[in-house]
Amino acid sequence: MGKGCITVTKYFLFLFNLLFFIFGALIMGFGLWILFDNQSFIAVLQESSDTVKVASYILIGVGSLSMAMGFFGCIGAIYEIRCLLGLYFTCLLLILIAQVTAGVLIYFQRDPLKYEMSHIIKGMIINYTGQNRTTEHTWDYIQRTMKCCGWTSPGNWSENHLIKNSTQKLYSCSCRNDSLPGTDKKDVGLCEHLSAEPPVYETGCITSVEKWLLENCGVILGICVGVAVVELLGMILSMCLCKSVVQEDYSKVPKY
Question: What's this model's pTM, rounded to 2 decimal places?
Answer without folding.
Answer: 0.57
